[in-house]
Amino acid sequence: MRRHYATIKDIAQALKISVATVSRALRDTHDVSAETRKIVLEKATELNYKPNFNATGLVKNSTHNLAVILPGITNYYFSTVFTGIQEVAYQNGYNIILYVTNDDAEREHNIIRNLSFSSLDGLLVSVSSQADACQHFQDVMDDGIPVVFFDRVAEHIVTSKVMQDDYNGAFEATEHLIKNGYKKIAHIAGPTGLTFTDNRLRGYTDALHKHKLPLRKEWIIHSGFTQAYGEKDMRDLWQLPNKPDAVFAVNDRKAVGAMLALKDMHIAIGKEVGVVGFTNDPVAAIISPSLTTIAEPAFEIGQMSCRLLLNHIKKKNFIAEEIILPGKLIVRESSIRQ
């Protein structure tokens, strides 16, 4: 049996005041005294009152529903971003509908195609690694639904975006390896066409140029973001006649894969080959040797992107903002030459 929830009318009848007064008290308008609001809130709790967003949506053209589209949810980074989104959404009375693309562009298109936009106030998106063309998101915005991108953004769509400082993080990671004596540094990158992949690649290459170290095309490998890709990339690098002595990985999962490949080939991590990742996944601290990485502000990215989306929802002419949050180098054993 479905649970019964009280209505505003039930509260008004119990307190013997008008429905309008109860409504204003629940919305905390200026013309209701603090004492009246306190009494109404206490009675609402007692009677198990729950706001009817479907009804208020008809009046305010608002559903209090937000959709979030993620490439994945099982890894530390995106689950932490999602937690940040949840916190802000729930604090502001919004529900979240989660969609996961598994880095599949066709699935991303199908999700957008099948969304019921009449039941959504806005959309938070981290694009699929294969989604080079993002016109489907522009179409959503043209239909009047606000969209905010985070982490993996659609570069050419004008709306708010929240990212970590990929360029400077990659530069710092590569320069850290250089300062620890590594001279032949490879980069196992993400798929091409993603803004943050390109920015991390630029940070890596600019650090090499600054220190007048060789940049070899065969030392840059583009592939997926998983541990398995990291392991394969490392083995491919080790087949080269001119082998690198260090690796900067686009994320920690690929860095861990590279480390597992090095261990399997009996190559001493740190002493012979340095490794640096990007994320600060919890596994980075517990793998042996521990992994040097760039810590990303994942929770803050989630919070900030949701706040921006709510701004776009509340103010239709809200000026788009691009926010870049700094990362932090966490030095551990994998990049230290004994």
Q: What would your notes on this structure say?
A:
- There is one protein chain.
- This protein has 13 helices and 12 strands.
- With 338 residues, the chain is of the alpha/beta class.
- It has a 6-stranded parallel beta sheet, with helices on both faces. A 4-stranded parallel beta sheet has the order 7-6-8-9, with helices on both faces. It has a two-stranded antiparallel ribbon with strand order 10-12.
- Helix 5 links the parallel strand 1 and strand 2.
- Helix 5 packs parallel to helix 13.
- About 2% of the residues have low confidence.
List the helices and strands and how they pair.
Layout lengths: L7 H8 L3 H8 L7 H13 L6 H8 L4 E6 L5 H16 L3 E6 L4 H10 L7 E4 L9 H8 L4 E4 L10 E4 L1 H14 L5 E5 L5 H16 L9 E3 L4 H12 L7 E4 L2 H13 L9 E3 L6 H4 L6 E3 L2 H17 L7 E4 L2 E3 L8
Parallel strand pairs: 1-2, 1-3, 3-4, 4-5, 5-11, 6-7, 6-8, 8-9
Antiparallel strand pairs: 10-12
Q: What number is the mean pLDDT? A: 91
List the helices and strands in order: HHHHEHEHEHEEHEHEHEHEHEHEE
Give the total of beta strands. Answer: 12
Category by helix and strand content? alpha/beta
Oligomer: single chain
Rg result:
25 Å
Helix content: 40-55%
Gross geometry:
elongated
Low-confidence stretches: 54-59
Distance between the termini: 67 Å
Biggest sheet, spatial arrangement of strands: 2-1-3-4-5-11
Enumerate how many helices there are, as a single number: 13
Largest sheet: 6 strands, parallel
The fraction of residues in strands falls at: 5-15%
Keywords, please?
338 residues; alpha/beta; 6-stranded parallel beta sheet; 4-stranded parallel beta sheet; 13 helices; 14% strand; elongated
